[in-house]
Amino acid sequence: MAVELDVFVGNTTIMDEEVYQLWLDGYTVNDAVKVRMEGGVLEECETSADVLLSDTMDQYRTFQMCERLLHSPAKLANQLLFQIPPHRQAILIERYYAFDDAFVREVLGKKLSKGTKKDLDDISAKTTVTLKSCRRQFDNFKRVLKVVEELKGPLVENIRQHFLLSDKLARDYAAIVFFANNRFETGKRKLQYLTFQDFAFCAGQLINNWTVGAVGEPVDHQRSSRVYMDVDLDKEFLQELKELKILITDKDLLDQHKSLVCTALRGKTKAFNEMEANFKNLSRGLVNIAAKLTNTKDVRDFFIDLVEKFIEPCRSDRWTAADMRLYLTHYTNSAHILDTFKHQVVWDRYMGVIKSCIFKMYHD
Amino acid sequence: MPGKLKAKIVAGRHLPVMDRASDLTDAFVEVKFGNTTFKTDVYHKSLNPQWNSEWFKFEVDDEDLQDEPLQITVLDHDTYSANDAIGKVYIDIDPLLCSEAASVISGWFPIYDTIHGIRGEINVLVKVELFNDLNRFRQSSCGVKFFCTTSIPRCYRAAMVHGFVEELVVNEDPEYQWIDRIRTPRASNEARQRLISLMSGELQRKIGLKVLEMGGNAVVGYLQCFDLEGESGLVVRAIGTACTLDKLSSGSAPSTNTHIHPNTAPASNACNSPSKDGKEPVFGEDLPSSSGPPTPFRALPTSSSSPPPFSPSKPCSRQSSSSDTDLSLTPKTGMGSGGSAGKDAGPLKTLLRQQTQTALEQRGASSSGLLLNAREFPFFTLTSFPPGFLVHAGGVVSARSVKLLDRIHNPALGNTRSYKLLDWNSVTADEPETRDAWWEEIRQEIKSHAKALGCHAVVGYSESTSICEEVCILSASGTAAILNPRYMREGCLDIGSTDHRFEEPSPPSCGFCHIPYDELNMPFPAQLTYCYHCRRQKVPDVLFTTIDLPPEAAVTGKGCLIQARLCRLKKKAQGEVNATAISNLLPFMEYELHTQLMNKLKLRSMNALFGLRIQISVGENMLLGLASATGVYLTALPASGGIQIAGKTPGDLSNEHHILTIQKRINDTIAKNKELYQINPPELTEEAVGSPIPEPRQRSRLFRSHSESSDELSELDLSHGKKDAFVLEIDDTDAVEDIHSLLTDTPPPTGFYSCNTEIMPGIYNWTSGVQMFTSVRVFRLSNANLTNQGLNKIFTDLCENLLKSFYFKLRSMIPCCLCHLNVTVAVPEEELIQVAVTAVAMTFDKDQTQEKPAEKVIQKGSGEIEEQLQFPLELCADSSSTSTQQSSKISGTVSLLTPAAKLCHNQLVMVRSAGVPETSNVSSRAASVDYGSFADRCSTWLELLRLKAHTIRRGSVKTSRRTQSLAHSVSSLERGSPLPEGRSRSLRSNRSFGGSSVTVVKMTPLSFLPGTRIIKYLGIINMFFIRETTSLREEGGVSGFLHSFIAEVFAMVRAHVAALGGNAVVSYSMKECVLMENPNKNQAQCLINVSGDAVICVRETDQEPVSSSTNIGQSCSSGTDGGAT
C-alpha cells in the first residue's frame, strides 16, 4: 500500500519559506522532513510525519517547476503558470540568488568555467555547503556573468534590472562578476583572513572608480574606441598609473614626500617611529602596485600585493586602524603639495580606492 | 450570415526554441473557425514575435458561433520540412454572444500543447458583430446566459423561475476510432479536445433553445458532465434551471438596500437575516398578487393536486395523503408504480414499458413543445434560494441505476448505434435517445419519491455517473421540497396579499424544517415534535438535504464537515453478472453510508445535514462510497439524544466493562464536540403550554404498504419505548471496529473549520483571504487479501490524511474555514483509489465570531408547549419502480436507505426511541432485532429487485407567510441561545482585501468572494483539456505530471477570464479528472474538465449601506465603485 500520487495545487501558489530554504540548501526531501520535525512543527500543528512528507514533496515539486522561471526572473512576473503575489516573487528570487559567503569565498576570482564546476564537490566538502546548493550558486554566478557581460551601462544597475535583485544583492553579484572577469587572486593563504564582504567592498570601489563606466557617460567620440562598460578596468587609467612611478624613482620627490608626511604625523601616533622608518618601503610598495597594473597578471595579484607590500608590514609594526587611517590620509594629501608632482588626478583616483580598500582589509 | 467574427493576432512571448541551430523560432499563426483558416506572416528568428496581424474576419451563422471554438494554432515555419506545431489555443466565443457579458476578448493566452503543456503565450483580440435574427425557426440561442452558480447570480433578480432543462449529445470518442491507430497521440488528443468543445457548444445551444421556448433568458445552476464511455462513445450532458433574470441596474441596486433595518422592523422575530444571495432586491420589490396567469411551475402536474395558493387548507399534507390521486402526466410512474413492484417480473416489465413509452412520447412531444420538459420534472439545480422561495424541505431523494453500456457492432449502421434496451419495444433508438431514456427513468423515480414526501418539487438536484468498463451507474439526487409558487410567476412577489394557505405563517428561520407531509398519514414512520423555534409546526428529529443552509435558518453553534466512507469488495465479473452484482451491493452501501452519517451526526450532537452528496464509484473489484455533508444544529429541531451502546449478550461482565469503556469514550467525544462546535442549545424547560403534544404515532403502515419493501419494513419497525438516545449494538468484532472508526475521525486542529456547503454555518465575518486549491491523491492497495474492513480503514485513513494535510498546508491562514470541500472518489484501475478534492480556504476574523450578524429570535409564545417527541430515524423504501430485464440490459435503481439494506446489516441497529423530554440521557433499552432470517429474504428480494427506490424523508412544516422581504437584510443566523439580541451587526469587518489587479484572477468554488461584490458576469467558463506524456519519469513521475497539468489548467482558466476582462472565477469546479498511467511505458494521460463563471468583482467599499454590508453575499446591491479592470 502506497501513495502513488499526491499533489496539491493552489490557485495562489503556496510556498513555505522554511521549506524553500531547505530546498535551496540542497536538502533531500527526507532530510528536509527530518529538519522540519526537529523544528517541532509536528507538535505545533498537531500533525503527522506523513503529512509533513507529503507537504515537503509537494513544495519541492513546486520549486522545481519554478526553477526554470527563476533563471530569468523577469519572466516570473509575466508568466501565467503560477499565480504568485509580487512580494512573494521578490522573496523567491532574492532567496534563489542568495549565496553562502563560505562558498562564494572559494570561487571568488576563479574563472566560472566547467573546470571550476568540476571542483565543486571539493568546495562542497570544504564548506559543508551541499553540492546541490553549490551548483545552484555557481550556476547563478555564471548566469549573471553571461547576461551582464554583453550589456553596456552600469554593472550593478544591469544586474538589478535583469535579475530583479535587491540593491545589496546586486552589488554582491557585481563584485562576483567583476572578480570573475578580472580573475583577481583571492585564494592565497595570506588572503584567507579576508571575507567575501571585504572583497565585495573593494570590488565596489574598483567598479566605481577604476572602470570605464566610472568616469561617467562617455562622450560620443569615445564610444567607438572605448566600450562603455564597468566590468573591465579602465585601460587608459592603468596606463596613466605608470606616471606615478616618479614618486619613488625621483629621490627628491620621495624625500620631500616623506618629510611632509612625517611632519604631519609627528606626535599624533605611537607608531610614528615605525612609520618614519618604513615610509620609503611602504610608498614603493603602493606605487609599484600602481605601476604594474597594466599587466593582467599583476591585476590578478592586486589584493595579494596590497597585503604583502603594505598591510603585512604595518601589521607587524602593530599599527592600529586609526594609525592606518592617519597615515594614508596624510600620505595621499601630502602628494598634492609636491611641486613637481603633476599627476594629481590620477593619484587621487588611485589612492582613493587604495585607501578604502586598505581600511577595509586592515583587520585580523 | 448573422454574425461576423473578427480576430487579430498581436504578439507572442516566451515561445519555445524550435530551431536548435539558432536557439530561436520562426513562428506564425493559423486562425481557424469552422472550415475557414487564415494565416499570419512568419515572424523570423524570435521568441517574442510581434505579428500585429490584420483583422481576420469570419462570416458565420450564429449557430456555428455557439458551437465552434475559435482555434488558434502557433507553428514554427520550416522551409524544408513540415512546419512544427508549437501549440494551440481554443477560445470559446460564447461570452461575446451575449450583450450583457463580455464585449471583447483580449489578452495573453497560454499556448497549449497536449504533449508538452504550456509553451509560451500569445496575445489575441477577438470581437463579434451580431446581426439581429428574428427567425422563429432558428437553431441558435444566442443571448441566453449561462451560470454555473447554483443560486440566483448576484446583480440579477429572478423575475421568473421556469424550471428544469436538460439535454445530452452523443458522439463517437475519437480515441476509439480506427484512425487513432495511425495518427499521433497529439492529433488524437486534439481531435478529442475539439470534439468535446464542439459538443459542449452544441449542448449549450440546445439548452438555450429550450430556455427561449420556455420564455426564459438564462440558465442557472448549469451542470455539464462528460461520460467517457470508451468504446461505446462519448456523452456530454447537462442540466440546469431555466430562469428569467433581470439585471439590477446600478440605480436600482441601492434602492434595494433600503430595507427596514432589523431593529426597526416590526415583529423582529421572523426574519432579520442577511440574505447571502444578494438577490433580495427581487423579493424586496413587492409585486402584484398571486393571481397571475398560470406559470410553468404552477402547471406542474405534481402541484396540480395541491390547492391554489389562496386555499386556506393545508395542501401539502393533503397532497401527500392523496398522492395516489395525483394527476400526473406520467401517472404510471412515480410512487404509484411501487404498488406493483413485487417479485413478479411480468408486471414490472409492463410497467417499465409504459413508463418508458410515456417518457418517449413526452420526449417526442417535447421537440415541438419544449415546455413539457419543465412539467415533467419540477427539478431545480439551485442549492440556495431567494428568501421565501423554499417553503419546506422534505428530505433527500435519490435514485441510482446500473446500466450496461452495450454497443451493437453493426458495420452497416455506421455511426448509428442501437441499444438493446428498447428492443422489446421495437424501437430503434439511437444513442442519445437511449441515454435520455435512462435519465428519464431516474428522474421519474426522483419525482415519485418527492411526491411520496408530500413535496411537489426537488431542489438541489444533481446527476452523476460512474463508469467502469461497460458498467455504468447513473445517480441522481436532490431534496424534496415545497416551493412557493408565487416565485414562479411573472411579477410574483406580493407580501401584501398574505397567503392564507397556512393557518400560521412560519418564520423563515425554521419554516423550511417543518414537515411537508401530513403527520397523520406520514409516508414513513418518523418522530415529530413541535418546532423548537416557533412551536407551531411539526418538525422531524433529523433533516437531511442536498441544498445549502438557508441563510435565514436559525442555527446553534458551528457546523462541520461530516463524511461517511465505505469500500466494498466485489468479484470481478463481466456484463450482466457484473451489473447484477453491483446493483445488489448498492442498497447495502447506501444504507451503511447513511448509518455512518447518522452516527457521526449524533456524535457531534447535531441534527441536520446540508449539502449531502453521496457518491458511489465503481471499479473492477470494488465499489467505493463517499457521502459528504455539512452537519449543523438547527435550533428548530430537537437536540440529539446521544449515542447509547448496547451489548448483545448482557450478563457477560468483561463484555459489559468493555461496553462501558466505549460508552464513556463516546460520551467524552460528544461532550468534546459540543464544546468544539459550540453547541449549547438552550435548556428547554418543560413548560406546559400551548400546543398539545400529539400522541406519538406508531406507524406500522408505510407509505406504500402494498409494496414489498414496505411490508418488510413494517416487520422491521422496532417499536421500542421512547428513548431519545440513539442505540448502537455491539454484537461482534465488526461492530467494535465500526465504533472505533466512528471515533477515529479527528477533529480539525484549532482554528480550522470545514464544510462542504457554500459557507460555514456559524461563521459570518469572513475576511479577504481566499485560497482555492485542488488536490489529488491516488493510493495503491497492495493486493494482499483485503477484507472489507481493511479496505474501509485504508479508505478512511486516506480521506482523513488528505484533510489533515490541507489543515497543515493552510495553517498560515488560521483562523480559516475550508468551504465547499468537494471530494470525488474513483477507482481508476484495479487496486487504485483516487480521491480528488477542490475546495477553498477562507479566512475569517476570529474576534468577531461570537457576534451574530443580527438576530432576533422569536420569543416563542411562552404559552406554547415544549415537547420533545423524538422518533428515531426511520427508513423506508419503496420499490416504486420496476426491474428491467430485457435482452442484455440490466438496470437497477437503488435509492437511499433501503430497508433491505438495513435488514442485512446487523452490526449497527438503529433503534427507534422516543424522546423523554426531561432527561436527555435516559438509558434506552435497545431492542435488537434478529435480522438473520431477514437477510436471507432480503437477498432474494434484492436479486429480483432491479429498480429500487427509497428516500430519506425528513419532515418539515409549511410556511405560508413570506418573510418580509426587508427582513433578510439582517441575518437571523443565530448562534448560541436564541435570545433576541436587539442589534444588528455588520457581519464582516470592513477590512477587505484589495486584490483585484489586472493580472490576479481569484478562483473559488463558491458563488461569491468575501469582501467583494460582483458587478458583472462575463460568461461561463467550460474547458476541457487533455495532457499526455511519453516521458513520465522526466516530468517528475505521475505526481509531477499531474501537478504541472493542474497548474496549467488553472493558468488557462485565469488567462481566459482575464481576457474576458474579468478578475475572478466563481462557482469553479473540476468536474472530471481522469488519470491513466503506465509507468512501465513511461507514459501517462490525463483529462480534466473544469467550469465556472467569469466575473468582475470589486472591493466592497466602506461607506456602503449597512444592510448591504451585513452580508458577504449581498455585494451587488450597493453603489458602484471602480475597481477591477
Span between termini of chain B: 33 Å
Q: Residue share in helices of chain B? A: 10-25%
Q: What's the pLDDT, averaged over the residues of chain B? A: 68
| Chains forming the largest contact | A-B, 37 and 52 residues
Number of strands of chain B: 36
How much β-strand is present in the residues of chain A? under 5%
Strand fraction of chain B equals 25-35%
Q: Counting H and I runs of at least 4 residues, what is the number of helices of chain B?
A: 19
Instruction: Please compute the radius of gyration of chain A using only Cα atoms.
Output: 25 Å
Overall geometric form of chain A: elongated
Q: Based on DSSP secondary structure assignment, what is the total number of beta strands of chain A?
A: 1
Oligomer: heterodimer
Stretches of chain A where pLDDT is under 50 for at least 5 consecutive residues are 219-226
Determine the fraction of residues in helical runs of chain A and give it as a percent range.
Answer: 55-70%
Named at the architecture level, the CATH assignment of the largest domain in chain A is Orthogonal Bundle
CATH fold-level label of the largest domain in chain A: Globin-like
Strand and helix order of chain A: EHHHHHHHHHHHHHHHHHHHHHH
Protein name (chain A): Fibroblast growth factor (acidic) intracellular binding protein a
GO molecular function, one term (chain A): fibroblast growth factor binding
InterPro entries (chain A): FIBP
GO cellular component, one term (chain A): nucleus
What does this structure look like?
The complex is a heterodimer of chains A (364) and B (1125). Chain A is mostly helical and 364 residues long. Chain A folds into 3 domains: 17-97, no CATH class; 101-186, no CATH class; 235-361, Globin-like (Orthogonal Bundle). Chain A contains 22 helices and 1 strand. In chain A, 68% of the residues lie in helices and 2% in strands. The longest helix of chain A is centred in the first third of the chain and has 22 residues, at 49-70. The model of chain A is unreliable at 219-226 (pLDDT under 50). In chain A, α12 (167-182) packs across α13 (196-210). Chain B is an alpha+beta fold and 1125 residues long. Chain B is 23% helix and 28% strand. Chain B has 19 helices and 36 strands. In chain B, the strands form 10 sheets. In chain B, strands 13, 14, 15, 28, 31 and 32 form a 6-stranded antiparallel sheet that branches. A 4-stranded antiparallel sheet of chain B has the order 4-1-8-7. In chain B, β16 and β17 form a beta hairpin. In chain B, α7 (345-368) packs across α9 (431-452). Chain B is globular. The two termini of chain B are 33 Å apart.
